[in-house]
Specification:
By secondary structure, the protein is an alpha+beta fold. The protein contains five helices and six strands, in the order ααβββαβαββα. It has a six-stranded antiparallel beta sheet with strand order 3-2-1-6-5-4.
């Protein structure tokens, strides 16, 4: 087995991946549909949306495999992100990179693998939409093109997910700002009402004092 190297843009790649805020999130129907469709379309037992993190590959959706992540060192997808093209492994046991890989010699007994890149708009390979079979098989240029189309659709959904999430956060922030403004206005209104009452009380006291002074002055005049 040959462990995958790190991409030359690893730091920027990880920054892009983490920026999508998708790692370790719950399953979502749109991604479940993609892997289910991929498995049925290509007639494979396993289809995965894999995101290659610092030390692991994490599965946003996984059809036919009871796992949510594996170590990056044994990840086929960690090899796939090193190339600008779809990685196709017709028979893993005949490939020096994977022949002794524990995912080949043990569960899930990978023999065939095809991984189309999940590439960001600025060219960062954050993962793959991949197909896995327990037996060797060929993969035509037409099939590869279809898988790449599905990978682009998957990436588009990841982008849309982030936009939707940011919109929700913006609405929440706007609502919070609105509520805080209403609170401040209410507090200011109460304060102004208190000050107004105090001024009215002071004016009333002054008027009463003026009346009393007039009465005293008039009394003094009468006595004179």
């Amino acid at each position: 087995m040959i462990a995958p190297a790190l991409p030359s843009d690893e730091s920027s790649r990880l920054e892009a991946l983490h920026g999508y805020e998708i790692l370790d999130t719950a399953s979502e129907e749109v991604f479940e549909r993609i892997t289910t469709m991929a498995a049925r379309l290509f007639d494979v037992p396993i289809a995965v949306i894999s995101l290659v993190d610092t030390n692991r590959q994490w599965f946003k959706s996984c059809y036919g495999l009871d796992a949510d992540q594996t170590d990056r060192k044994v990840a086929f997808c960690a090899h796939a992100i090193l190339s600008p093209k779809t990685l196709v492994v017709p028979d893993a046991r005949l490939d020096i990179r994977f022949a002794n890989n524990p995912l080949v010699t043990g569960e899930p007994h990978i023999r065939f693998y095809a991984g189309a890149l999940l590439r960001t708009q600025d060219g960062r390979n954050i993962g793959t939409l991949c197909l896995i079979d327990h037996r060797p098989r060929s993969f035509s240029a037409g099939q590869q093109a279809h898988l790449e189309d599905m990978a682009q659709i998957t990436m588009h959904q990841i982008e849309l997910r982030l936009v939707a999430q940011k919109l929700v956060e913006a609405k929440q922030a706007l609502r919070q700002a609105h509520d805080e403004l209403e609170t401040r206005v209410a507090e200011r209104t109460v304060e102004l009402a208190r000050v107004n009452r105090a001024l009215q009380d002071e004016m009333l006291e002054r008027k009463q004092a003026e009346k009393m002074l007039l009465v005293l002055n008039q009394s003094h005049v009468n006595e004179s």
